[in-house]
Design brief:
The chain is mainly α. It contains 3 helices and 2 strands; from the N terminus they run H-H-H-E-E. Helix 1 runs antiparallel to helix 2.
Length: 74
């Protein structure tokens, strides 16, 4: 595993852990549809990309490249 993949795994783990701790301590109601689920989605994607080396955002960024240049917003 490369350092980048290990870093993704650690980041995903800590994001998911913080969501579980917030739910367990009653700071967030996990049964309601809130933005916390988007955060969980990001954490899960980071964790799975550590093992599969495939990240949806990286795929989008590769598609947005044109002629070796990255398209800058604005």
């Amino acid at each position: 595993m490369t350092t980048e993949r290990i870093l993704r795994g650690i980041a995903g783990f800590f994001i998911l852990l913080s969501i579980l701790l917030a739910g367990g301590l009653g700071q967030v109601e996990l049964g309601r549809p809130t933005w916390i689920w988007f955060t969980a989605f990001v954490g899960l994607n980071l964790l799975q990309s550590a093992f599969t080396d495939w990240c949806p955002m990286m795929a989008l960024l590769r598609k947005w490249k044109q002629g070796g240049r990255v398209i800058h917003p604005g």
